[in-house]
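4.2 Preliminary Data

To establish feasibility before requesting continued support, the project team ran the inverse folding procedure on a target of 518 residues. The structure was first converted into the token representation described in Section 3, and no sequence information of any kind was made available to the design step. The complete token record follows.
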């Protein structure tokens, strides 16, 4: 051939590695690569292949096989690791090259093939490292089924300014339980929170009141069913402790916070068993603190439950009772216990954004006593009260009007008199008789408290030393009955799905029924 004569183009049959009749999957191009959009005219010199792309230059295929549907994942489970797609080698051209160009292509293909082989052997080695006996059939312990979550409370990195609820939920899930109760009148469900490794569970008294043989069934977050017995109950504060009969060794008790540090507007998360839907998580904020709430006790003849509660807008419903209220770091700051429902509307009792939790400082004190002795003692002042107001120093304030002082009581010893209006205790405003009752019940016998009272138009500070109320004595420090909402909730009626709050005894001017439905 004349040296000046142009070499004719090579046909596909002349090429040693022709890909003319192959699909991209059958040729050198890796699966998922960018397929060529057309061939090269025979009269044109083939364009040399581009050098292999670097990691930052690779382009993921625009069209890939749709991923398989994601399996169901427990909402408590931590987020699954996101894997970066393995970078593919640069796609091969559908047309070969002559002379030096073809020899350049072969090393590129060889390098890609070698890299793929190395990756395959590495994968095999990694798999064998995790499975010493790949040929055997593995078995899963029933105790491990349903368990997930690696974080522990308090959760670092989750703050009130930027709560990470997914991590908090994962961290606290194992400390929340569902409680099933069978009574002479039927049964009900509620929630609880694990206090310690011994299997003590804190819940509401109205959840377990009337349980047959003082026995309930507890369901852990992973689905394990365990029997528990009632250690002690306190109708005055609507708190109770049950203990697992055979506590597993892998319990995850909750981390308890301090309710005194709770502020309005702080983010909160409620976890419980509303309407039998275990492991339900709802979030919201603290709407108010020291909100006086009164409701009927969990039994005939029991005290009216009066609590300066944490008010929240997180949804809680029948079955949430006894469950924990968490702060943004996963610490328990309250025990959800009741909700307010609109009376006379004919609808089901459910969340309207007005839920209430017993502060954990009070709950911790009562739970400690119940675990130690099965009973709880309460401080008392020794007065009967009603709502009212008083004017002094040019200011009118609401307060608790003392109607009667019991002889020999702490109030009598401090010279509290009938007609005094208590407007504050230790600097905290007293909005009425229920408010003062709740403040006193938060304290322990032997505590000193400073009462700010208005007497004859003048403001006085009176220091009183609280004492233990004798259980055989007539109930003291009870707010005036004329201001009480209806006393619904009888034993065996706790937290049943669709239960209506009772309407009997409801005052016409009171638009809410305080309902043990939280």
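Position-by-position output of the design step:
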């Amino acid at each position: 051939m004349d040296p000046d004569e142009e070499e004719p183009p090579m046909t596909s049959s002349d090429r040693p590695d022709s890909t003319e009749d192959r699909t991209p999957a059958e040729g050198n191009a890796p699966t998922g690569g960018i397929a060529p959009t057309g061939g090269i005219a025979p009269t044109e010199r083939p364009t040399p292949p581009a050098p292999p792309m670097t990691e930052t230059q690779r382009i993921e295929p625009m069209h890939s096989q749709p991923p398989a549907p994601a399996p169901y994942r427990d909402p408590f489970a931590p987020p699954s690791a996101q894997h970066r797609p393995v970078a593919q080698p640069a796609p091969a051209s559908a047309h070969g090259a002559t002379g030096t160009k073809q020899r350049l292509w072969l090393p590129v293909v060889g390098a890609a093939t070698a890299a793929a082989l190395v990756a395959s052997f590495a994968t095999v080695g990694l798999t064998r490292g995790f499975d010493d006996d790949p040929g055997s059939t593995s078995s899963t312990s029933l105790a491990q089924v349903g368990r997930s979550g690696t974080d522990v409370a308090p959760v670092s990195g989750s703050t009130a300014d930027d709560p990470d609820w997914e991590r908090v939920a994962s961290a606290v899930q194992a400390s929340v339980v569902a409680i099933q109760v069978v009574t002479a009148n039927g049964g009900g469900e509620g929630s609880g929170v694990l206090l310690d490794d011994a299997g003590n569970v804190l819940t509401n008294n109205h959840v377990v009141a009337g349980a047959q043989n003082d026995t309930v069934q507890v369901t852990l977050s992973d689905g394990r069913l365990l029997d528990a017995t009632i250690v002690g109950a306190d109708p005055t504060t609507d708190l109770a402790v049950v203990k697992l009969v055979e506590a597993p060794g892998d319990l995850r008790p909750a981390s308890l916070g301090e309710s005194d540090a709770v502020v309005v507007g702080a983010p909160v998360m409620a976890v419980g068993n509303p309407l039998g839907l275990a492991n339900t998580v709802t979030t919201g904020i603290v709407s108010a603190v020291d909100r006086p709430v009164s409701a009927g006790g969990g039994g005939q003849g029991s005290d009216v439950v009066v609590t300066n509660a944490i008010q929240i807008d997180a949804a809680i419903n029948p079955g949430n009772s006894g469950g924990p209220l968490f702060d943004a770091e996963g610490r328990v700051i309250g025990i959800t216990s009741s909700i307010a429902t609109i009376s006379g509307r004919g609808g089901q009792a459910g969340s309207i954004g007005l839920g209430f939790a017993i502060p954990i400082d009070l709950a911790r004190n009562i739970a400690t006593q119940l675990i130690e002795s099965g009973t709880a003692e309460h401080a008392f002042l020794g007065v009967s009260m009603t709502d009212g107001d008083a004017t002094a120093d040019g200011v009118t304030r609401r307060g608790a009007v003392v109607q009667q002082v019991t002889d020999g009581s702490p109030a009598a010893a401090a010279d509290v008199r009938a007609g005094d209006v208590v407007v504050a205790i230790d600097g905290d405003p007293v909005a009425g008789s229920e408010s003062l009752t709740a403040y006193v019940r938060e304290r322990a016998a032997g505590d000193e408290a400073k009462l700010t009272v208005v007497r004859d138009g003048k403001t006085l500070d009176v220091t009183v030393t609280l004492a233990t109320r004798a259980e055989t004595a007539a109930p003291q420090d009870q707010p005036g009955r004329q201001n009480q909402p209806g006393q619904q909730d009888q034993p065996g009626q706790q937290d049943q799905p669709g239960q209506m709050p009772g309407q009997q005894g409801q005052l016409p001017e009171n638009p809410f029924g305080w309902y043990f439905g939280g």
